[in-house]
Amino acid sequence: MYDVMVIGAGIAGTYVAREFSRYDLKVILVEKDNDIANGTTKANSAIVHAGYDAKPGTLKGKLNVLGNAKFDQVCKELDVPFKRIGSLVIATNDEELSAIQELYERGIENKIPDMKLLNQEEVRAMEENINEEVIGALYAPTAGIVSPWELAIALAENGADNGLEIRLNAKVTDIEKIDQGFLVSIGKEQIAAKTVINCAGVYAEQISEMIGDKLYKITPRRGQYNILDKTVGQLVNHVIFQAPTKLGKGVLVAPTVHGNLLVGPDAEDLDDKSDTTTTVKGISFIRQSSMKTIRKIPFNTTITSFSGLRARPSTEDFIIEGSKKAKGFIHVAGIESPGLSAAPAIAEYVIELFKEIVTDIKEKTDFNPKRKPVIRFEELTDEEKTELIKKDPRYGRIICRCENVTEGEIVDAIHRNAGATTVDGIKRRVRPGMGRCQGGFCGPRVMEILARELHVDIKEILKDGIHSKILTEETKQVKH
Question: Would 152 disulfide with which of 14, 192, 283, 390, CB 3.0-4.6 Å?
Fold first, then answer.
C-alpha cells in the first residue's frame, strides 16, 4: 500500500509529488496520458504572475505571492530556465487608469513588492514599440517567465530521483473508500493508498465525484495563442497585459523564456474537456486585440498556433482542502491562473493539510533537491562545445537546425527518470521541433533516435498521445 497517491502530472501534481518525496513515505504519481505535463501545463501563458490581480483574502491571493518568491530557488535547483523580467498592465484611457489604480491598491494589500504606477513617458522608455495611445501602466518587477512543461518534467524527474514512483497511461476509473485508505482502480488494476491527492486539472470534478464529493464544478475554458519566431522575440521587454475592462482582460504580449514572442489568449468556455483545437475566430480575435498593445506585430512570422484548457472552478478560487466525505482525500482543484505561479506554495499547503491527517512523518536525511544539470549545447562556448564533443561525439551531430539541438541532448532526455518516449516528449524537453520549421527537418531523425534508444520498431513511435502513431507501413518497396 502506498502512503500517498497523487492523481495528475501537471504542474500542481508534479510539484505536490516532488514535495512529498522529501519525506519518508511511499509515494506514487499517476497520470492518464503517456507523458508528464500533457494537459494545461503544456499550453498556457507561461507567466509567473506578481500577484496583484488576485482578490485579497483568497487562496489565489495568498499562494500566488508565496509561490512567486520561490521560483528563483526551485528553477536553480532543477536547472529550468526562468527570467524575472517584470510585467506591465497598460491603460489607454481614464477608465483603464482607474482599473490599474485598483490593481495597484489590491497589490499593496496582497503585499506585492516594488510596484509602481508609470506615466506615458516612463512606459515609452521601457517599451519603445508600445502603442502610442498608451497613457500609463502598472509596473510589477517580480513577474517572470518560465517554461511550465520543463518545470513539471524536472519536478517529476527530481521526485523520481528521490524515490517517487511514476505511472503513466494510468487513467483512474474508480475510487473505493476502505478502512486503511482508498482502493484506486486503473483499468482492471487496483492500487491501495492511504491518502489520495486530486490534482486532475479539468478532470478533478470527476475524480472528486468518485468518492461522493460534489463540492464544485470545473468548466474547461479554452485559450488560444500565437507563437512568433525568435527574430521578433525582442519586440517587447516585459510581459504586457491590457487593463481589465467590462469586456474582459484582453490579450497579453510577452517574450518567452526561449526568445520567441507569445500573443494570446482568448477565453471560451466549453463542454468538451479535450477540445484543444484552434479556430479562425479565436486566432483572429487575439491578433486584432493585440493591436491595442503593439500596433504592428509581425504575425507573418508566426511559427505555430495552439490552445489550452484552463480548469475554471465554480468557486472562483483554488479548492485546496481535505474531503469531509472521505478522510485522507485532499482536493487540489480549480488550479487556473495563477496556478503556475502559486504551484510551489500550493505544494507546501498540501503538505500541511497532510500533516493534519498523518502527524508523524519524517523528512529524509538524503533528499537531494537538485537534478543533474541539462546540457544545452547552443548555450555553450566554442571551447566547451569542443571538449564535450571529444568526450561524446553525439553532441557533435546537430539534429534540429532551427534550435541547434544535438543527438547527445536527445539521448540524455530519453534516459533520464521520467524520460521522453514520444516525438513531442523530446520536443518539450530539449526543443527539437520548436523552431521555424516545426519539426519538418528534424522529426524523422528524432523518431529514429527514439526507436534506437527505446529498442522498439520505428512504427511504434508516437507523436504525443497514445493514439498518435506517425508511421503505419512502408509506402514503397525497394529492391536491392
Answer: 14
